[in-house]
Amino acid sequence: MGRLLEQGKISSSQMSKMLFLVIVASTVISVPSLTGKYAQNDLWLSPILASLIGFLTVFIVFSLNRLYPQQTVIQYSPDIIGKVPGKIFGLLLLFFYLHITGLIVRNYAEFIMGNFLPQTPISIVIFTMIAVCVYGVKAGIETIGRTAQVFFFFFLFPLILMPFLLRDMHLDFVFPMFEHGLLPALKGAIIPQAYFSEMFLMSFLLPYVTDPEKGMRAGMLATLGVAVVLTGVNIFILLVFGRQSSDYLYPVMAAFRYISIADFIENLDSVVMTVWILGMYVKISVFYYATVLGTSQWLELSDYRPIVIPIGMLIAAISFWSMPNINAPVISFPFYSPLMQTICPLLLLGVAYLRKKGKRQSQAQTAAASGSVHSEKQEG
Amino acid sequence: MNRNARKWWRAHKQRVQQQAVPSHTPLHKELAENEQQLRALYDNCSDVVFRSFRIGGSTRALVVYIDGLTNTEELERNVLSVLMKTKMPKDSAIGKLLDNVVSVSQTNELATFEDCLESVANGFPTLLIDQQECALSFGLAKWEKRPVEEPMAEGVVRGPREGFTESIQVNMALIRRIIKTPALKMEQMQIGGYTKTKVVLAYIDGIVDMDLVTEARARLNRIDIDGVLESGYIEELIEDHPASPFPQILSTERPDVTCGNLLEGRIAIIVDGTPFVMIAPATLFSLLQSSEDYYQRSIVSSAIRWLRFLFTGISFLLPSLYVALITFHQEMVPTSLLISMAASREAVPFPALVEALLMEVTFEALREAGVRLPKQIGAAISIVGALVIGQASVQAGLVSAPMVIVVAITGIASFMIPHYIAGLAIRLLRIPMMFLAGSLGLLGIMLGIIVTVIHLSTIRSLGVPYLTPIGPMKFAEWKDTLVRAPWWMMNARPHLTGDYQKIRQGANQKPGPEKGGDPA
Amino acid sequence: MKWVQIVAMSVLACILFALEWPRLSRLPKRDKAAFITLLFVAWVLSMLDLPNLPGPTTFINALFRPLGQYLE
């Protein structure tokens, strides 16, 4: 049952870098405006509140993994809630991932089109990215982990450039704090928390981590890192744009456009974009990988590589499906994502615990009946 | 088709083996029969000399050697003349002859025809004596060798100037002269059905991970090839990813580089007939290191390493960045620069991509021609080349001046990579990058970079990931990758695979005035 | 335009099939079936005028509409 389709291994630090890039890549450029819409000048608080969901998700995944080491959620959910419901849940989850990957790809393509290549057909942008990801996913998790490690350093590079904006920052934009209580900040956290629940991808990675006992720490660190970066970016955007943050579709890009070093080095938004493409690649390929791996485990195939290309085509198809343009945002995402990735797994964990407990009790009873006392210790 | 070919190959191999009739056939007692057999084998080999004589005027004997591979003077003085004068010992033990008469330091007793053939082919004169079932070979090989010279492709300002030569004995000696411990092992094997090339697998016992040696040995033993003319043959047959443009095995002409790598737990493969010694496992960063990094002051070396990284990037990306900026992203170029670039491009009839390709290909052609040219006309070609691509093409309005600058910088940058082959890989990848830049702009470049990084992170060299120490991360090794830490900081060896001897030197060796000499 | 798309996607599907099949032929039947089915589904989808058809996104949006309105 616990057959491993993947031969590769990653380290827990590679996993945490993958997860960090997965969440930061898509949030960093648009979240300030999305949270700013609700939280106004309290938008710096929202990522911190949202990260709670991330920590919770990491805890859930890690606990599930402790109960079923060497297995992904697709493999252990039939064990927990029975064969048929488990399979149905797996299918829903896979469908969710397929769908979300398509949306991410679409988001990426829209961003590229809007900012850099307005004349290129969107299908070209989508297909090239999927082709690159096919190469990465086929190479396996080891390769994705290593590329994440390499790109992680590049991804942090634009942060060094932030101080050049100091003279455009206004500290008074932060005030008044909590004008309308905590509610706006909480509302602003609704969108980022959906991204934080993507930590659930850990469930597909943990079976391949060489040091799974450090998985909890790695996941928590990744969440913390994301929270810190997002809070930092939000503060920085707030200080530069104030309450107008939400007027920009991509406020980070707009802010970097302000930077001018010695009147010569300008248009640093292109640096942000190039680096962001690297992060997006990691994000898409991790989602893509989870989809492919999960599907092949669900179908009980002998290898996941044969279905990489067909699933890539499906992702491309979904990225077009019923979206003539991106201006109709996916309003369901902030609820759909935590439902599938945090709430359902939480229920799974609850059932798993109850079952274990029931088992233990029945065992303890039989043990007591037969007069031996040390069964509890063994179970613990 | 494939099966037929395999069948043919098997038959062919059998034929070859039949030709070499007496493989493992023991020598006869009768000299006449041995001679006949050998003469039949060396039929039509005009370079093989058969010299019959009598030991002490009675016992018949025969010396076989190859003209030009043997030191005939020594042979005459220490073997022939002595043997002719002496008397064959009565008990006819060949050992006694060796002990008492022949004054040659390296001798060997041979029992089979195959051994005889091998020793003759290696330049050792072989002595066959009547009524003896074994032959004697004398270590009197001598042929024309290139002297030890400064390596052509890997120059240094500070550092030893010795380079390997074509002779494997000399190369082994050069290594042994630096690493004197008996722990330095040199396993010899023969590869090549016809060339019977000597290949030596060198490593330091106790430092190297023995699994690495076993793996390398197994890969070498797997080779079944007609001939080995250069270490490149072997490299292609033992590497992990044959389809990659990146070299997964380092080749060097320098004994000091080889020894440095042996001391870090790598293995070296020395092949007879070439001055290029292969070192494995190699990583991407080891290709960007020069031996001189370790001889210069550490701060300077670190700075030079950074310069090298920068220019490796430039050599990979500059032309495609230029194409992308000109074609897609003019708004990113500072205005004043854009104006001057636009002015110089005004008369150019080609799109930027075509212009860049034209210039790059011309440059590569010049470089290749420069390597192959007879030395006498090299100067002429470089003048013509410089004039053609530099001056005339700009004046004729075929190419813009900035493009010439870009190509020139790229050209210089690609020669900053200390290992020529690694430079070739990057140069090769530059062309597809330019196409990507010409079709998708910066996005194309980024996709190209991603694909390159994916490729690099799938490669392994003898089990060591190619991007070590960045992916997978080994923070402890950064001090000898991103910078070159001073020697007193590098107390641990880099970790390659499996078990290894981690500590390489005593701790706490940082010098300083307070340490001084002896406190007394 | 429509025809170009259909032809292009069919050619792409054929090329991908031809590229993958040599490696697939060694694998069990189940893998082959999964590959062919998924590729076929993707090919059929690519024939349609997807951007203007209701799809999973529409469905999910409808499902979560009440919650979404709270956000507005």
Task: Describe the 3D structure.
The complex is a heterotrimer of chains A (380), B (520) and C (72). With 380 residues, chain A is mainly alpha-helical. Chain A has helices at 12-39, 46-67, 73-81, 83-115, 122-139, 141-161, 183-188, 190-196, 202-205, 215-241, 251-258, 269-298, 308-320, 333-370, 375-379. In chain A, helix 2 packs parallel to helix 8. Residues 372-380 of chain A have low confidence and may be disordered. Chain B has 520 residues and is α+β, with helices and mostly antiparallel strands. Chain B folds into 3 domains: 20-138, no CATH class; 168-282, no CATH class; 294-465, no CATH class. Chain B has a 5-stranded antiparallel beta sheet with strand order 1-2-4-5-3, sandwiched between helices. In chain B, strands 6-7-9-10-8 form a 5-stranded antiparallel beta sheet, sandwiched between helices. In chain B, helix 6 (168-178) crosses helix 9 (255-263). The longest helix of chain B is centred in the C-terminal third of the chain and has 39 residues, at 420-458. Chain B is elongated. With 72 residues, chain C is mainly alpha-helical. Chain C has one domain (2-71). Chain C has helices at 2-24, 29-47, 56-63, 65-71. The mean pLDDT of chain C is 81. The chains are: A mainly alpha (380), B alpha+beta (520), C mainly alpha (72). The interface between A and C is large, with 35 and 37 residues. Chain C: The chain crosses the membrane at residues 6-21, 33-50. Chain C: Keywords: Membrane, Transmembrane, Transmembrane helix. Chain B: Keywords: Membrane, Transmembrane, Transmembrane helix. Chain B: InterPro entries: Spore_Ger (IPR004995), UPF0353/GerABKA_families (IPR050768). Chain B: Belongs to the GerABKA family.
Low-confidence runs of at least 5 consecutive residues of chain A: 372-380
Q: Nearest-angstrom radius of gyration of chain A? A: 22 Å
Provide the CATH top-level class of chain A: Mainly Alpha
Total number of beta strands of chain A:
0
Strand share of the residues of chain A?
under 5%
Terminal CA distance of chain A reads 24 Å
Mean pLDDT of chain A: 83
* Overall strand count of chain B: 12
How would you describe this structure in keywords?
heterotrimer; B: 520 residues; alpha+beta; 3 domains; five-stranded antiparallel sheet; 12 strands; elongated; C: 72 residues; mainly alpha; 0% strand; membrane (chain A); germination (chain A); transmembrane (chain A)
